[in-house]
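Quick one: structure tokens for this chain, please?
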Amino acid sequence: MNVTALSRATGLIYNLLVVELLLLLTTVPTLAAITLLDHDVSNVPLVAVCAIPLGPAVSAALYALRHGDDEPATAFWRGYRGNALPVLKLWLPLLAWLTILAVNLANFSSAGVPGWWGVLLAAVAVAVTLWAVNALVITSLFTFRTVDAARLALHFLPRGATLANAGVLIAAGGVTLLASEAVTALLGSLLAGALLWNSRAMTAAIRDRFTA
């Protein structure tokens, strides 16, 4: 490994560590809820409320990993301040919608509805989550109106990045099931970096076609 490659690797590790620390710091309510609350469907709405800080925090992490080559902490807080409100305009409706879907799926057996309805609800939840990943990346890296960011996220949903991001989310879910939510949280900056890497074709297309 030459000096340049070593320097880049060291810089990447440093950025990931700084972003991870700040990501954990800004998601304390979410981490506390996940750790302390019982895994019961009755707690889903409370978990959703505690997850509100997660959207702006992940957005700031995406921004910092994209723009914070030399000063990741400065880039993180700049991204947090600049993106918090636009992200929340998408994040809050998403949490509400996913909460409704989760409660319905958890009580599916007692609802007396056909089995295909549960499959449909699960498919909708997956599609909405993958759309949200696109929207989060777009809102974190570009300045669009909320409706335009939502439309672009939907436009790029059938693209290859969606499948790759689905793999990242499945891996995160697997780590959570096999280990714990705390381990997944400690991998937060790596997961954000993976989403950013998977979305590079989408962000390049948006930059070339939809920005001046």
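The radius of gyration is 18 Å.
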